[in-house]
Amino acid sequence: MKKVLLLAYLFLMTNNATADRSELDDPVHAGSIYVLHLLGQSNMLGWGNKIDRSIDTTPYAAREYTPALGENVVPDPNFKLGIGSWKGLNTKLSLADNKLTGTVTVAADANINLTLTGLTVGQKYIAQAKIGGTNHKSLKFRLSAPQTQVYMTPNGSAIYLDFEFTPSDVTAMLSVFTNTIPSIGDTLTIEDISVRPVLSDAPNGSTIVASDPLTWPNSKEAPAWGVSPALQAARDLLSDGAAMVILNPLAVGGTGLYRNVWAVGGVWQNHALTQIKKAVVDYPANKAIHVLVWLQGETDVSNKVSQENYQAALLATLNSFRTISGMSNARIVILGLLPEFIARKDATAIVSAQQAVAAQLSNAVYVPTPSGYAQRDLLHFNAAGSRIIGSLIADNIP
């Protein structure tokens, strides 16, 4: 029976994926399905780095389970239906840096309208965009037919919004408009527009077409995410001949372990436990290989957690996921912190604890990460570093 690896709830599928890696003929990954559970902090999902569409594209079909917590789906600029035309009501439109801005010319109802083309009648879609503007108490993001909409209060900031719809025609009007009468000179903005089909053939749930940036539990940080190490790992596994990779993005930026949200009983440990259990129901142990990928520790370094306390907490948390039926010997990959951060913050205690846990657990490995790929904050990996980390994940999955 084909192996399935729970790399995450993003399920990535391919038919004869093209490959440029020397391990293409490696029989270890050929024909297997992988599911990866992505745990820890923001570096796991790719923080503050810029996606390069000439590099960060997927040479295979990528799918993602619809989010478990709501309002946490991010736009996928790489997958768009056609935008046949756009126009504004009582606005002057301008397009720059992939942002469409409507400047109000008349103090009356104002909006930005985009005509979508190429829709399939009866197919469910999810529409997403980053919208904003000036001096508006609230805005609406709406589809014309059937009328589907969501409200927002921007307060001067742009916010990601999404809603599902099933079109009754092959074209539809997607709009952002004011909920109150604007003033001349006010603006409406819409960018990162994405319309993705919702696919219903996933076990016990629906999936959406997936791409960087991944989804995550805390959507308030949406604009900051970029290249994901996990999606690079998926690319590598698929180029090695894997049949499918499923990504379950559970990492949350700025979170701690010891006596914190990732400790046993903590809010994000509980959330991950619940989501992993759901994944195992969809892909039982006799059909899937589950992989736990851990990248975390910066907060505990800042909190001056001792090696002993961090080691005990990490061991307990990882073992809690292994108590799930079928997960007792799941592969564990513990990724090291950014070397520049380790040197600056004297993170020796946390590093030693992570190494000790990897040595103590069966089927576990500690993987140091390379230097020279730090962003200016010396805390997060840049895009190139995220890709390298992703390849390291794949290389350490037997």
Polypeptide structure, described:
The chain has 398 residues and is an alpha+beta fold. The protein has two domains: 5-74 and 210-395, SGNH hydrolase (Rossmann fold, 3-Layer(aba) Sandwich); 82-199, Jelly Rolls, CATH 2.60.120. The chain has seven helices and 19 strands. The protein has helices at 229-239, 267-282, 298-302, 307-322, 339-345, 348-360, 383-395; strands at residues 5-6, 10-13, 33-40, 61-65, 82-89, 91-96, 99-104, 111-117, 125-133, 139-143, 148-152, 159-165, 172-178, 187-202, 205-209, 244-249, 289-295, 331-335, 364-367. The strands form three sheets. Strands 2, 4, 6, 7, 9, 12, 14, 15 and 16 form a nine-stranded antiparallel beta sheet that branches. Strands 1, 3, 17, 18 and 19 form a five-stranded parallel beta sheet that branches. A five-stranded antiparallel beta sheet has the order 5-8-13-10-11, with no helix packed on it. Strand 14 (187-202) and strand 15 (205-209) form a beta hairpin. Helix 1 (229-239) packs across helix 7 (383-395) and helix 4 (307-322) runs parallel beside helix 6 (348-360). It is globular. It starts with a strand and ends with a helix. The relative contact order is 0.20.
